[in-house]
């Protein structure tokens, strides 16, 4: 007969593994959202600089 503490330890290991997977997914999602946000900011800055160059070249012409 297996002692009850063995079941408790096994349950603890399983719960810990589930929580680790869940936390990992959440961290990857947050990291991806942060990268996407930074990319959008960068692209907006590039567009703004492009427009500034266009307007500067028009005023020089």
TrEMBL record:
Keywords: Membrane, Transmembrane, Transmembrane helix. It comes from the Bacteria. The chain crosses the membrane at residues 6-24. InterPro entries: Spore_YhaL (IPR025428). This is SigE-dependent sporulation protein. It comes from Bacillus infantis.
